[in-house]
Amino acid sequence: MKKLRATAIAVASLMAMTLGTVPTAAAADDTAKKLNAADFKLRRSANDADYTKLVNALPNADVKSVLDSANRTAIRIPTADGERITPNFAAGFLWQEGDDKTPDWYPQGITTSSDALDSGVWQDRKVVLVSWYGHKDGTAAEKGARISFIDRTDPLKPVYRHVLLVTPTTTSGNANFASTAPNHAGGIMWYGNLLYVASTDNIEVYDLNNILKVSTADDTKIGRAADGTYYAYGYQYVLPRKFTYERDNNNVRFSAISLDRSTTPDSVLVTEYDEVGDGSRLFRWNINYETRELSDTTADWAYQVNIRAMQGAAAIKGGDGPDKSWYYITRSNGRDKRGDLLVWQPGKLATIYEGTWMMGPEDMTYRPSTDEMWTVNEYPNDRYVMSVTADRFRP
After folding, report:
1. Which run of H or of E encompasses 230?
2. By CB atoms within 10 Å of each CB, which of 117, 130, 220, 364 scores lowest?
């Protein structure tokens, strides 16, 4: 392991020495209330002509092809080190040094092949996907968002590659694409062949069967050049947006997103960020196992939770319905203080496990086969992708 990253683990270990699994406080949840889910409707919006033209114009790739061409190496976090970083550490890895340090891209969303399929395996691979947005103060702001495809089939040797998200367009009758900027890509959820991206104002949906290969000769260009060559800011692959779910006469903020397989049918959980927690909400939409799209664009469940700085959330142990689920919620406390894990059941106070995460935890996803609750944190020089054993943290 490189000295720099080893030092980062050592610092994290010192910060975590006093942490435990005993909750230190209870959130004031007496103001939480159930909302009328019928008030929160979405509408599906698509650009089928441009999308179809684009996917027919460029060579098609799949997830396995992207993983086979991985050009970056992640660093596995050994169990002994992980246990010093966070209580009940289960698994995790660090980014390659350049990705760990860059101020231009910030990781936000996380999902795995356990969301994609019950088996947890996609095309014979165990995969983690992580979204990044181009930070407004960096050189990537105009580039929109990208997805890291991480191959953890061998957890001892994780490797990965970035893929750029793009918007299909047509220029002078030719298939083309543009940046998705601005795109915060605050959370992602993988379900079958579809990737859902929470992008604040809407949910963008991408088809992982249509990853497209382009030229990488020029990292300053995007789209189709006059000679018919396609560029994507130096990225080898692009993933074009297929359609979106947009707000229909409501003010939902799509801050993060996750899949819940414990409900019948499976459902999508959306979280809403609010810095002070005044009015922050959780929403659910049911999803169709066959089409992989929402089965109803009207929400099935909505709850105002008023949790300060709520980032990602994932629900488990549903069974009897969303009011019985356990909701695992990340809370960020800024650049200089570790993040919290909250576990909440409707009608009860939320239990706070203070300082469970490193600084700046974001989206969440659950891997049921191993009882792992995963998150990713965003700040440069302290970026971790890690999980804890969920059952060790209870409401």
Report:
1. strand 230-232
2. 220
How many angstroms separate the CA atoms of 384 and 376, rounded? 6
Q: What is the pLDDT of residues 19-70, one digit of tens each?
A: 545 575 555 456 789 999 999 999 999 999 999 999 999 999 999 999 999 9
Give the chain's length: 395
The DSSP-derived string for 123-136 is TTB-EEEEEEEE-T
Per DSSP, 122 falls in state: B
**DSSP H or E segment with residue 355:** strand 351-357
3-state SS assignment for residue 375: strand
d(CA 274, CA 282): 12
pLDDT in tens, 211-223: 999 998 899 999 9
Q: What is the rounded distance in angstroms from the CA atom of residue 332 to the CA atom of residue 357?
A: 9
pTM of structure: 0.94
Cα 240 to its chain centre, rounded Å, is 17
The whole-angstrom separation of Cα 27 and Cα 33 is 14
- Sign of torsion, CA 18 23 28 33? positive
Beta carbons of 303 and 35 less than 8 angstroms apart: yes
Beta bridge partners of 203: 198, 245
Long-range contacts, 375-378 (Cβ 8 Å, 24+) = 375/110, 375/312, 375/330, 376/107, 376/108, 376/109, 376/110, 376/130, 377/107, 377/339, 378/106, 378/107, 378/108
Distances (CA, A) of 257 to 25, 110, 111, 195, 307: 26, 9, 9, 11, 16
